[in-house]
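Feature request, filed as a ticket because there's no other form

It would be nice if the structure record came with a short human-readable summary line next to the tokens. Right now we just get the raw output. Example of a typical job, pasted below so the devs can see what we mean:
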Amino acid sequence: MASNDLESWLSPSRAALLVYDMQVGICHQVESDAVIARVGETVAAARAAGMRIAWCRHQSLPKAWMGAFAVRMAMAWQRTDDPAVVEPWFLRGTPGVEIVPALAPQPEDFVFDKLTMSAFEGTPLAMALRDAGLQALAICGIAMEIGIEPTCRHAADLGIVPILIEDACGHGDAEAARRSIESLRFAGDTIVTSVAEMQAALARIAPGRPNGL
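Raw output as currently delivered:
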């Protein structure tokens, strides 16, 4: 299908929803209340329409496993020039790794962990999408300029159509997030939409199922 028709690509038989890094330890670093609410609306619409929902969580390597790259990135995030003071913020089993309580995944959802910015690198996401016969991935969450843009680009490189739910994406830096969205629009391989447009499209696809409209 060579089309940008949102309704066609959002069909539950063609697309899943990915909720990116809506974790306690990430949400508390940014202004996330409004994003949590919009992500909640997005998840509710997807679930009501019968879409599969995946949740990714960022994790840190234990300090003994942090090599040069991991230490360098941690130094940048933790605003330090001293590698000795770096601490892994997102260790498995710690509260900061968990999805915020307001967005608790359901048993039928797919929750997976990652070390990278792209939700595809080193994870089972691409295999799961292929095995389910899905060709598109709607994306929302935090943060636009850090991990969501790379995930959209990686999806396109894999032949998976990325659908960005723009107003359900948070950021750490507003200007950087704006540049990310402009860049994705310019490249043209990401369908950029909104929560309201997604809700309306899903309501047309499954008119007998409530989407909160």
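Something like this underneath would help us a lot:
The longest strand covers residues 161-170.
The two ends are 28 Å apart (CA to CA).
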